[in-house]
Fold this sequence. Notes:
Blueprint: H1 2-18, H2 26-34, H3 37-48, H4 67-72, H5 89-94, H6 110-121, E1 149-154, E2 160-165, E3 168-173, E4 181-184, E5 189-195, E6 201-208, E7 212-219, E8 225-231, E9 236-241, E10 247-252, E11 257-261, E12 269-271, E13 278-283, E14 289-294, E15 298-303, E16 309-315, E17 320-325, E18 329-334, E19 339-343, H7 344-347, H8 366-369, E20 370-372, E21 380-385, E22 391-396, E23 401-405, E24 411-415, E25 422-427, E26 433-438, E27 443-447, E28 452-457
Antiparallel strand pairs: 1-2, 2-3, 3-4, 5-6, 6-7, 7-8, 9-10, 10-11, 11-12, 13-14, 14-15, 15-16, 17-18, 18-19, 19-20, 21-22, 22-23, 23-24, 25-26, 26-27, 27-28
Helix pairs in contact: 2-6, 3-6
Amino acid sequence: MIVLKYFPLVFVLWTTSVNGAERLSPLEKSVAEKISFRKDVWPIVKRHCWGCHSGADAKGGLSMNTVAAMLKGGDGGPLFEIGKPDESLLLEQITGDEPEMPQKQPPLSKAKINIMRHWILGGAQDDSIAGEGEFKVLIPDKYKVAPAINSVSFSVDGKRLAVACRSEVVLVNVEDNNPPLRVPSNSDLLSHLEFSSDGKLLAAAGGSPARFGEVSFFNATDGKLISTRRIGHDSFFRGSFSPDNKVIALGGADGAIHLVAVDAKAESKRFELHSDWVFDVAYTPDGKTLISGGRDKTIKACSAETGKLLRSLDSSTELISSVAADGLFGIAAGRARTLVGYELKIALQNIEVTGAGNGAKPISRRAQYAKAFESQPGEILDTATSGDRKAIAVAGAFGDVRVYNIADRKRTALIPNVPNPVYSIALNQDATRLAVGGKQGTVGIYQLPEGKLLKSLTPVPVAETIAISP
Ligand code: HEC
């Protein structure tokens, strides 16, 4: 340790003598020695660079996750050589009249640049603690309280129901009473589960707030992990598989629509159309258009290929929690208790949209293409379409679930007395079964249209049962 401890100082003296230009005053020398990567340098990197220079899509191929990654550098070579800050790519990029980095942000202050410079001059010592701040998910054998259920999804054959319980996916058998299969993920919180329409994959999306978005793809039959992809720097919400099952589109807490390719080698895309969290994204059945909505209260239609905004279909008075699409309609629902279908053929005719997404205003032709369903008794938290996209179910902060025929917007079923609030619902292929999960942590499976409860269970083991007096 002693060698390590004094190594930087020796190094500074050595580089100083080799490089006349790098002569340090005694004060500088003692400052340089005391600079801690963990306490001084990392906070600067984290605040100003890490957002773009980390993860799978690190810009310029440069990851600044660790000192080793910085020494390795990106497309342009190492970020710096130890002891030689003034010849480094790092200093070149962050200094000057109009520094290139951090991109599109104010330049670093002189003081911060000095810290980086002196740290390199002082040997770029790495006092980070291995694994510190690294993300670890803990999945208990037994939960103290049943976790809320954020997502449910039927397998294509309807025999299994995937249930999102905090960080794990639980595969519940619909037809028999065999015990559920618990499949862990590395996401802090899972927010969206979906089986691909070819029956092969199960996608589980979520992430960790302000850290990363994550999608894991599992084999739909045995629950084996196929691949996991961490993308961006904030969690994902909900979305949908593309009709060809090659991509999953997800709304992000970073305000973007993310198109995550199943093939880990294929490029993922992000479309920035919304000014706030995107809660949900849906593909039209032809795979050409995406419908999206979120906290900015707008409902948008964009090209799934390019992300070009086709139209801001509508704006609500409240946030949009859920979107859907069939062959004719884009559908959106949210806190305003409304469920509205937008006839896309009419809505997207003669589109004149200029500029970027957020400036585009819905126009008065709205009445021609916006068709409201029956209004709901409370805030809508989720909608679900059947696999054949003929039916849509609606639920939220109220004690029933309603099912509608999308084509004529007529109600076909009403299931009363479901545990309230409902966070997530799912329909099977032909809308003969409905699954309901929510805050209470139980899942109910109902027969449609009569609404008979077939099964009700808590998908994960819970240690203590809390007695509730009648
Ligand atoms: C908003 C995003 C963003 C932020 C923040 C950002 N960068 Fe970059 N950086 C980029 C992009 C994009 C590129 C690649 C294209 C280019 O060079 O403009 C890049 C390239 C670089 C390169 C060249 C990489 C190579 O090997 O070619 C360096 C060095 C760099 N950035 C350093 C930094 C540092 C240091 C910070 C923090 C002080 C920072 N960047 C913050 C987006 C960003």
